[in-house]
Amino acid sequence: MKSPLGVLVAVIVAGWVAVSYPAWRLGGPTALLMSAVAALLCLLPCVATFVWGVRAVGGSPADRMQHAFLGMMLRMFVVLGGGMALYFGVEEFNWTSFWVWLLGFYMATLGLETWLLQQVARTAGLTESNPPGA
Predict the structure, then answer these.
(1) Which of 27, 75, 91, 103 is the most exposed place for a label (fewest CB within 10 A)?
(2) Of 107, 92, 100, 109, whose CA–CA distance to 33 is shortest?
(3) In the chain, what are the domain boundaries?
(4) Is the pLDDT of residue 127 over 80?
């Protein structure tokens, strides 16, 4: 079986590769750069929260709640903070389309991570009918 972390990274990279040619054709090198940076800004906290989430899946309800809350905060800090720093600090990223790239990759990585964590919980036999500690 494939590693869920490997699947996560591969799907995000493949998603960027899939949109890179249309981005380059429609917006040139600047759009290609913005899409790559947006994918990377979303990939880094996604991998960190996924690894943390895999560890929290079998833990107590408090562990899972902590993961959900702090993972959300980590994502927002890295993606929004990094996006704002680039938008206001680097002229090449001072475009509304950069925020569209960030939003698209943010939602895609969040959805993919959530789905993969659910698959990890099912594989571990932890479902709503069989919660941990039961």
Answers:
(1) 91
(2) 92
(3) 4-121
(4) no
Q: Are 60 and 133 in contact (CB under 8 A)?
A: yes
User: What's the pTM?
Assistant: 0.86
Q: What is the 3-state secondary structure (H, E, C) of 14-80?
A: HHHHHHHHHHHHHHHHHHHHHHHHHHHHHHHHHHHHHHHHHHHHCCCHHHHHHHHHHHHHHHHHHHH
54-64 CB burial, b ≥16 within 10 A, e <16: bebbeeeeeeb
The answer to whether residues 74 and 24 touch, using CB atoms and an 8 Å cutoff, is: no
Length of the chain: 134
